[in-house]
Design goal:
The complex is a heterotrimer.
Chain A: H1 2-33, H2 38-46, H3 48-81, H4 87-93, H5 96-99, H6 102-113, H7 118-125, H8 134-159, H9 162-170, H10 175-204, H11 207-212, H12 223-232, H13 236-266
Helix pairs in contact in A: 1-13, 2-13, 3-8, 3-10, 6-8, 8-10, 9-10, 10-13, 12-13
Chain B: E1 4-13, E2 16-26, E3 31-35, H1 42-50, E4 57-62, E5 65-66, E6 77-80, H2 92-102, H3 107-120, H4 136-148, E7 154-158, H5 166-183, E8 186-191, H6 194-200, E9 203-208, E10 211-216, H7 218-223, H8 228-233, E11 238-240, H9 247-262, E12 269-272, E13 277-280, E14 292-301, E15 306-312, E16 315-321, E17 333-338, E18 340-345, E19 348-353, H10 355-366
Parallel strand pairs in B: 3-8, 3-9, 6-7, 7-8
Antiparallel strand pairs in B: 1-2, 1-4, 4-5, 9-10, 11-12, 12-18, 13-17, 14-15, 14-17, 15-16, 18-19
Helix pairs in contact in B: 2-3, 2-4
Chain C: H1 2-28, H2 32-41, H3 43-76, H4 82-92, H5 94-97, H6 100-111, H7 116-123, H8 132-158, H9 161-168, H10 173-202, H11 205-211, H12 221-230, H13 234-269
Helix pairs in contact in C: 1-13, 2-13, 3-8, 3-10, 3-12, 6-8, 6-11, 8-10, 8-11, 9-10, 10-13, 12-13
Classes of the chains: A mainly alpha, B alpha+beta, C mainly alpha.
Pfam family, one (chain C): BPD_transp_1
Transmembrane segments (chain C): 48-75, 87-110, 130-148, 189-215, 235-255
Protein name (chain C): Sulfate ABC transporter permease subunit
């Protein structure tokens, strides 16, 4: 009996921890954002600078996700299908952006492309300014979200039965047709899932972006940095309002992903 | 005194009635086969006996002790899982010794018991292997030894032969039967293979759709199936659409049909087993009113007999013909002698012997 | 085609990862070994690493314990009902979808100086926001899914049969967990621990918002990097960042080892 009591209290403790740590803070943001009613919420969200920041973030994150879809597919393909010197090394390196503090990632890109580096100066001299401009933000987003597409595709590629491809060849299909009709459909769930993950992560990215974006309102100020600015200037209501928009967008993405590929991730 | 007693056991999963009103008892030392089609509730019943599933209602007692409130740990049972569930990170010896260590046996005693079981199950030489280094049959022996080690009062086996390929399966069946009779532990095993149940079990419990359909020795069940389901599940049976085509049985059938309809039961169903049909050429047997004329419509060699299909009126019957006789040819006219029929209506069942045949035997005796 | 794509992949890795890493390493050694040593001789730098270390230890310990327990609950807790577990399962991923800055903001909104909870803790002499407790909470939030997502699929995969076998052999739940379940999930848990260490060491946005980035008090290694960059003190920023990157590489090696052990187990079982 005593043991059952112990078990019961342990279970309740775990659930309570979960609720307090994860669910409560989310309610707090929604509560604060809408605490003064609809009107102030709407004003905070439609403030021109806020709107600019949100729109810029969505655009750049989408671009970064698409770049990663291409780079990630190529990388995953080469890492799974080809045997070449350095493969194991590169495969381990894929996870580095996960392991590296995002601020360090931002600093690395700043140093490489910044005004003090050889590369940055060369690029500036041919008229390509990158740092403190939108391209730098995209590069930072691509860097941080690079592992998602690769790591989502690799298991699918490994599972793919070579016999399916061979069957396609024996039926007279060309390499390109086989890729398009046989391989791509099998990879699609992983590709979409990975790209969506990269997109939602890029939407939320702060550390890597804040150091290299320049954060000029209306030009290079992304949503998360805007929220940070509002918190710093003691305007939590506005911060919460923009957070509500960003959060809702992220949740929608998360639930879409769960609905579309839930069975995969649940496995 | 019954060793295992189950009374009115019920279990529902959501809206699915997995086990419904099952009651039976088993005597000490018997080997029971729990037989039925997949999804019939056999495994659920077994898991409830083990305490791995909580029944919605009913009572279970093992060795005269009610175990309803006891967790699996305290029921004194051994369980062999379908895929053996060997502990992957433990060697053969560690697997077998696990239950004894849990019970805090002395080291020397554990050592002795494990050695005994290794010898009994023929696993000597494999002591230090891990489960993934064993063959299917060896894994099953380990699972068996592990379940037996703590000297359970009741051994439960869930589809013990399902994961083994057909060739080894036959050997293992005989091995298991021998082993259990040597150890003398009361055992229940689940199977969906009727041949396996008939061959291994002392007694069979047949389950379908959560209900216990019949309990008895394999011969009893074969000889007198209680429901149409069992008649088709144990052995082969052909359903008869129209009893009037089988003239010799017509009278008996009509009287039973009358009785049945009087009692307001469902429709009368009739089955006949291939083994109780004799097919002969006209010169092989004296003409008799017990037999019917038929035409051979299909002949196939089946290794131990001819498998013959004959058309009798509108009814097609399946029969066997011993290889010792000449083979029949297609379209040949033959005489068909049906020895007995099974009739079912609602909860009742009848075995009807061919009346003319018994009459004929009577006559022969008098002469 | 094949050679070209391998070349391209090498190029991607070089441009995206190796070149920035190399540039930073070069930058950190600009003033030689002495410059590097000077940075780490600063008490505020040492303090920042100390704060980071404390957060990593507390967060990893708590999330490991509760992550494993919650995974057990989500996968094995049939008493909870399927619907409830599905909902909780979706909720676990929530922190993944939340920007770290918002994660920090949440803690401020809940426990800040003007909130009910904040004043409650304040009156008992516990400062939550702009202090270590708030930073720990923010990091806990951000890293919460890592352990659950690592352990839950493993539990699902090993199934319940071995555990049931242990029960029928007389082992109590506690013993069954340590003797049967734990050996199967061990490397998954270790993988989760390494991931949690990486994320809590590297956490920046949430901590920056909650901590106020007060030198010698709430500044962590990552927020120190940020501040040094803002002050255009690149040598210090480089040195600290390089140290963090070095730790990340170590963590990466740990991840690789854990992953390989995890795979070995998986293959051995099948």
């Amino acid at each position: 009996m005593n043991q059952r009591l112990l078990q019961g209290s342990l279970r309740s403790l775990v659930l309570l921890y979960f609720a307090v740590l994860v669910a409560l803070p989310v309610f707090a943001v929604y509560g604060k954002g809408l605490s003064l009613g609809w009107e102030p919420f709407w004003q905070s969200v439609t403030h021109p600078l806020a709107l600019d920041a949100l729109w810029l973030t969505v655009q750049l994150a989408l671009l970064a996700a698409l770049i990663n879809a291409a780079l990630g597919t190529l990388t995953a393909w080469v890492l799974v299908r080809y045997c070449f010197p350095g493969r194991r090394f590169l495969n381990s390196l894929v996870d580095l952006p996960f392991a590296l503090p995002t601020a360090v990632g931002g600093l690395m890109i700043l140093l490489l492309l910044g005004p003090n580096s050889w590369l940055g100066q060369t690029l500036t001299s041919i008229g390509w300014e990158i740092v403190y401009r939108p391209p730098a933000i995209v590069i930072a987003m691509v860097f941080v979200t690079f592992p998602f597409v690769v790591r989502n595709l690799q298991p699918l590629l490994e599972e793919l039965d070579p016999a399916e491809e061979e069957a396609s060849y024996t039926l007279g299909a060309s390499k390109a047709l086989t890729f398009r009709r046989v391989i791509l459909p099998a990879l699609l769930p992983g590709l979409c899932g990975g790209t969506l993950l990269a997109f939602s992560r890029a939407l939320a990215e702060f550390g890597a972006v804040v150091l290299i974006a320049g954060n000029l309102p209306g030009q290079t100020l992304v949503a998360s940095v805007y929220i940070f600015g509002q918190v710093e200037s003691y305007n939590p209501q506005a911060a919460a309002a923009v957070s509500v928009v960003l959060l809702t967008l992220s949740f929608l993405l998360l639930f879409t992903m769960n609905a579309l590929f839930g069975r995969r991730t649940a496995r | 005194m019954h060793h295992l007693e189950v009374r009115d056991l019920n279990k529902k999963f959501g809206s699915l009635q997995a086990v419904e009103g099952v009651s039976f008892s088993v005597e000490q030392g018997r080997l029971i086969g729990l037989l039925g089609p997949s999804g019939g509730g056999k495994t659920t019943l077994l898991r409830m006996l083990a305490g791995l599933e909580r029944p919605d209602g009913g009572a279970i007692s093992i060795g005269g002790r009610n175990v309803d409130a006891l967790p699996p740990q305290d029921r004194g049972i051994g369980f062999v899982f379908q895929n053996y569930a060997l502990f992957k990170h433990m060697t053969v010896v560690e697997n077998i010794a696990f239950g004894l260590k849990v019970k805090k046996w002395e080291r020397a005693r554990i050592y002795q018991r494990v050695a005994e079981l290794l010898a009994l199950t023929g696993l000597i030489g494999l002591e230090r292997r891990y489960p993934h280094q064993l063959s299917g049959g060896q894994r099953q022996r380990v699972a068996f030894a592990r379940a037996l080690a703590p000297e359970p009062q009741l051994l439960l086996l869930d589809e013990p032969f399902a994961a083994i390929d057909a060739k080894v399966r036959k050997e293992l069946r005989t091995w298991l039967k021998e082993m259990i009779s040597r150890v003398g532990v009361t055992s229940l095993f689940v199977t969906h293979d009727q041949e396996e149940a008939v061959e291994v079990a002392d007694e069979i419990l047949i389950m379908s759709q959560g209900r216990l359909e019949q309990k008895g020795t394999p011969w009893e069940i074969y000889r007198a199936p209680k429901t149409p389901f069992i008649a088709t599940f144990i052995g082969e049976s052909t359903a008869l659409h129209d009893l009037t085509t089988l003239a010799p049985f017509a009278e008996a059938a009509v009287s039973i049909a009358n009785k049945a309809s009087l009692e307001g039961h469902d429709e009368l169903q009739a089955f006949v087993r291939p083994e109780s049909i004799e097919i002969s050429r006209s010169h092989e047997r004296q003409p008799s009113s017990a037999a019917l004329p038929g035409v051979v419509s299909h002949v196939q060699f089946r290794g131990d007999a001819w498998h013959v299909e004959v058309q009798v009126g509108a009814q097609r019957l399946t029969a066997r013909r011993p290889l010792a006789y000449e083979p029949l040819s297609l379209g040949e006219e033959v005489s068909v002698l049906v020895h007995r029929l099974y009739l079912f209506a609602g909860q009742q069942s009848w075995i009807v012997e061919n009346p003319f045949l018994s009459l004929q035997r009577e006559k022969e005796r008098i002469v | 085609m094949r050679k070209l794509s391998i070349l391209l992949v090498y190029l991607i890795f070089f441009v995206l990862i190796l070149a920035p890493l190399g540039q930073m390493a070069l930058g950190a050694w600009e003033n030689g070994w002495q410059g590097f040593a000077d940075v780490f001789a600063r008490t505020d730098v040492q303090h920042a690493f100390w704060v980071s270390g404390v957060i990593v230890v507390i967060v990893t310990a708590l999330n490991t314990l509760f992550g494993v327990l919650l995974a057990l609950l989500l996968v094995r807790g049939t008493w909870l009902g399927r619907r409830v577990r599905q909902f909780a399962n979706a909720l676990v991923d929530l922190p993944f979808a939340v920007s770290p800055v918002i994660g920090g903001l949440m803690i401020i909104l809940l426990l800040g100086p003007n909130t009910a909870l904040g004043t409650f803790f304040e009156s008992h002499g516990i400062k939550m926001v702009f202090a270590l407790p708030g930073m720990v909470l923010a990091t806990l939030f951000v890293t919460f899914p890592l352990m659950v997502r690592e352990v839950a699929p493993l539990l699902q995969e090993i199934g319940t049969e071995q555990e049931e076998a242990a029960y029928t052999l007389g082992a109590a739940p506690w013993m069954t967990f340590w003797q049967v379940t734990w050996p199967s999930i061990r490397w998954g848990v270790i993988y989760g621990v390494v991931l949690t260490v990486a994320r809590s060491l590297g956490e920046f946005g949430a901590v920056l918002v909650v901590s106020g980035n007060i030198i010698n008090k709430t500044q962590t290694a990552t927020t120190l990097v940020y501040q040094e960059v803002e002050n255009f003190n690149f040598v210090a920023a480089n040195a600290v960042a390089l140290a963090l990157a070095g730790l990340s590489v170590l963590i990466l090696l740990g991840l690789e080892t854990a992953k390989r052990r995890k795979e070995v187990r998986k293959h051995a079982s099948s």
